[in-house]
């Protein structure tokens, strides 16, 4: 074996611990999204992404949020949701519950039909 193969492999001291998740303020998100909206030349958005150290998917999300005027500094709203956001959330929940109710009613209907069929077969066997 060579000398390099005999050397004990040591951990790289340059490897850092897992980085903490970055949080961005609503003002920062709005500023970057507006700056991206004003980009008109090819490559400007790429330069903006590199300069700020963010991914294109993050920028796309911020731009969409800017259009919806719902930029916030984190996913959690700290209990302060706008009435429009609450309404959207409640409408989604209402639709989900309606679908769940429809599904439950279908199951009950099937159970009733199966029960009726079993009673009919039971009466036929008795005769």
TrEMBL record:
Region (Disordered): 68-93
GO molecular function list: DNA binding; transposase activity
Stretches with biased composition (Low complexity): 71-82
Coiled-coil segments: none
UniProt-listed GO biological process terms: DNA transposition
Name recorded for this polypeptide: Transposase
Organism in which the protein naturally occurs: Rubripirellula lacrimiformis
């Amino acid at each position: 074996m060579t000398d390099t193969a005999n050397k004990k492999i040591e951990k790289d001291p340059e490897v850092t611990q897992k980085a903490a998740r970055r949080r961005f303020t609503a003002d920062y998100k709005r500023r970057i999204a507006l700056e991206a909206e004003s980009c008109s030349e090819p490559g400007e958005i790429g330069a903006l992404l590199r300069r700020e150290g963010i991914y294109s998917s993050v920028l796309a999300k911020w731009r969409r949020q800017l259009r919806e005027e719902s930029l916030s500094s984190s996913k959690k709203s700290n209990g302060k949701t706008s009435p429009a956001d609450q309404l959207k959330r409640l409408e989604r929940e209402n639709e989900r519950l309606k679908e769940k109710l429809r599904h439950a009613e279908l199951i009950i209907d099937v159970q009733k039909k199966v029960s009726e069929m079993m009673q009919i077969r039971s009466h036929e066997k008795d005769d």
